[in-house]
Amino acid sequence: MDSLITAAGRALAAGDPLGALQRVALRDDAPALALRGIAMAQLGDLPRARQLVRRAARAFGARAPVSRARCVVAEAEIALAARELGWPVKSLHLARATLAAHGDAVNAAHAQLLDVRRLLLLGRLDEAEQALDGCAASPLPPALRAVHGLLVAGIALRRLRTDAAQRALAGAAQAAAQARIAALGAEVEHAARALHEPAARLIARGRERSLRFAEVEALLASRRFVVDACRYAVRDADVQVSLARRPVLFTLVRVLAEAWPADASRDHLAAQAFRARQLDASYRARLRVEIGRLRRALRPLAEVYATAAGFALRPHRAREVVVLARPRHENHAAVLALLADGESWSSSALALALATSQRSVQRALEALAADGKVQAFGRGRARRWLTPPLPGFATSLLLPTPLPGD
Question: pTM of the prediction?
Answer without folding.
Answer: 0.80
